[in-house]
């Protein structure tokens, strides 16, 4: 328990945000309290204001500033009422954060169950319940609840990605891949989900005991290519492309084995890419990554990602020099 | 052409255009005040007086309009990308790995507040987030 509370304090960014929260709350008190809007005198209330309160609530809780968080949630309840679904979810979040021990969390879970018994389609509370189950490391229960939720709302892509992560944590790769494919059906241009799917496919190949599954690797490579196609200079995509193409080249150094697979996969599936194509893609990814690591963080890339890309490049160039 | 030329060029063009308009107006007043002078100036009496607008006024109008157009185009803001991939790359870099689909990986609905939030969600939703 002490570990989780220290983690809540760790992020300096959240801390600095929450330090500004008291000022922010004082500044905006007048806008929240007036019930009847008077034209030209009171400010028109905007959606952004309430979204801001939500974000503020989250960062306050994360930084451990429970007092300011309480102020935020009170304001939200004043405005939207305690029976609003979204507010119920946020209130649950607040209660979870200030809960002292596991017994308190268990009580919150019971409360969620009661709410859901009355109103089974209360999505925010259902999601909170799943998150809480996960937090109590009851992952299988969380998966069951999540599949139930998805049966009633199959277009909720946030839930699909969550389910994919849960399956991945249980090393159920085909299920995790299926979930991400469902996400892509709803949001086909989400480049980070394409990259994520590539990563999951790659992980499924590396963790399996078989030598190398060429078809899955090729599929992963295609996913990374698609993410690059959707987003210019996508570091994550190029990183994945380099990893997968490196592995493909080491697993299938000559075209003979790959050519054999072209004949075998004749049931509507895409054929294996030729070795020449993979080599070309590998060269492209290498040169692009080298270029991007030279730009470093000046162009807004994540520093950790750039460092990781540099390491990958160094690793792949060392054997050649020897 | 450098962009700082935009404003002087536009102002100069507007000045020329107003001058041309005023000249045309003066010319027409001159014709109505002294109708016989137009018959002397133009060989045929049947042609309307507007047809005999001097060449320099027409030229001034055209040149001034071109100058205004060029001035406005040069001074226009930098064009926004309309290709998806260029736009996406820009969003990705400007928000430091954010973008409209970042919400799918942060998943605020499922956030485990007791461990902390994984990525920079407080700043991630700034630019037209689809998923809030």
Automatic annotation (TrEMBL), chain A:
Component of the ER membrane protein complex (EMC). It is found in: Endoplasmic reticulum membrane. Keywords: Endoplasmic reticulum, Membrane, Repeat, TPR repeat. Pfam families: TPR_EMC2 (PF22890). Belongs to the EMC2 family. Residues 110-205 form the EMC2 TPR-like domain. Gene3D superfamilies: Tetratricopeptide repeat domain. It comes from the Eukaryota. The keyword Repeat applies. It is a peripheral membrane protein. InterPro entries: EMC2-like, TPR-like_helical_dom_sf, TPR_EMC2. Its main location: endoplasmic reticulum. The keyword Endoplasmic reticulum applies. This is ER membrane protein complex subunit 2. Part of the endoplasmic reticulum membrane protein complex (EMC) that enables the energy-independent insertion into endoplasmic reticulum membranes of newly synthesized membrane proteins. GO terms for cellular component: EMC complex.
TrEMBL record, chain B:
GO terms for cellular component: EMC complex. It comes from Lepraria neglecta. It comes from the Eukaryota. Coiled coil: none annotated. It is found in: Endomembrane system. Belongs to the membrane magnesium transporter (TC 1.A.67) family. It is a multi-pass membrane protein. Keywords: Membrane, Signal, Transmembrane, Transmembrane helix. Residues 1-23 form the signal peptide. Pfam families: MMgT (PF10270). This is Magnesium transporter. GO terms for biological process: protein folding in endoplasmic reticulum.
